[in-house]
């Protein structure tokens, strides 16, 4: 009788994809074991959550007991719910004050986190507001005149609202930092400490991250009260992500990417570049090759960034080229391939990039396009992360990254209202819009989310192409940025090189 309320829930289709021990190695607890409010349990189950992951098992009971928490766990193992659920449990909906502040490093992550709060707390009557830079300050001030229980935001805007006395944290009992290593870097730590001055002394602090540099320990000693430390980082990289590299000259990279598109079964992919100019140029070239592609980076107007993020999450476009703007926290279950078009320089950046695939213990693929000058960075990253990046094989096993039942891939939380952004230019940068696909015939019907989308113009679905050896793809157009030269097809490029070239290649300078 006591479980009759479960029968009325609108529970989504069970995610039947295989998972790794990153999320399966639990102690067998259920969400009911945490003595949560029934309305909160309803939101948890209707969001598709079945049982707690290891980080949730460890952190939720301690947070509910009122302890400060310093938690380390891998990307994609359920850290967001680990702090959202205790916050929602402790908030009193009838008290019209801000009762939890959740700070995140990027605007996209703020949107995503606020939507998790709204989805899990939809039966609780809790009001959540998201506030970020790049949007109208006046709108945020007006919104704060209505009840707000949870404020999710980025540092600069939250400090601005607190300084103007628009956001009152004087009785706010919960202070949460996601991606704490980034938030406590040298550029942001001062802002954090200014924000904390508006909080009461007896606040509860919850800090979550995948990596914890010395800056975090210094902050912990100064601002946390006997924190409960959780470390689930026996290894740094997710076990479900297969990592490969291809040694290619700079001018071969676009050709290599074209070959990957034609041979891999990509559901959705994120492609990383190291600079803004290269992001836009590569997105344009991918579109010219006949594949749907958007781009996103920090110089874009906020409204455009929001639109790209929303449409990519909803599966309206298959490929997204971006800078490191989207490396942290972004959770899109349908992304099964991450490609480092430009190899990152640090282990931390590499870890967060490849963690965009293989979310919540599922399988994913990370492919790194390496030039001669990247070889030392790769060696250093392998040593720091204790992982191995293998040479790309001629045939990549579909079982490493393809879900047999694509219908089981969960849809993301819908973002119903996107904040309106300021249209002001950033340091003279003029936004030119996304790559123009108007001249290419669109598919008659956009495939359902979780299915492979047809390229433009329509071709066979990747699902129908049997795995074959990597072979020479049609030469793409020349990829130029600035000086002549740039990217072009390599006439003898029949398979990926697995050894470093004998003579150092001279990459084009941008």
UniProtKB/TrEMBL annotation:
Localisation: Cytoplasm, P-body
Catalytic activity: ATP + H2O = ADP + phosphate + H(+)
Domain Helicase C-terminal, residue spans: 240-400
Ranges where the record places region Disordered: 432-510
Signal sequence bounds: none
Biased composition annotated in UniProt, kind: Low complexity: 459-510
InterPro entries listed in its UniProt record: DEAD/DEAH_box_helicase_dom, Helicase_ATP-bd, Helicase_C-like, P-loop_NTPase, RNA-helicase_DEAD-box_CS, RNA_helicase_DEAD_Q_motif
Predominant cellular place of this UniProt entry's protein: cytoplasm
A cellular component term, taken from the record's GO annotations: P-body
GO terms of biological process kind: mRNA processing; mRNA transport; regulation of translation
Molecular-function annotations in GO: ATP binding; hydrolase activity; RNA binding; RNA helicase activity
Domain Helicase ATP-binding, first and last residues per copy: 60-230
CDD domains: DEADc_DDX6, SF2_C_DEAD
PROSITE patterns registered for this protein in UniProt: DEAD_ATP_HELICASE, HELICASE_ATP_BIND_1, HELICASE_CTER, Q_MOTIF
Keywords associated with the record: ATP-binding, Cytoplasm, Helicase, Hydrolase, mRNA processing, mRNA transport, Nucleotide-binding, RNA-binding, Translation regulation, Transport
UniProt similarity note: Belongs to the DEAD box helicase family. DDX6/DHH1 subfamily.
PANTHER family membership: DEAD-BOX ATP-DEPENDENT RNA HELICASE 50 (PTHR47960)
Protein name: ATP-dependent RNA helicase DHH1
Organism: [Candida] railenensis
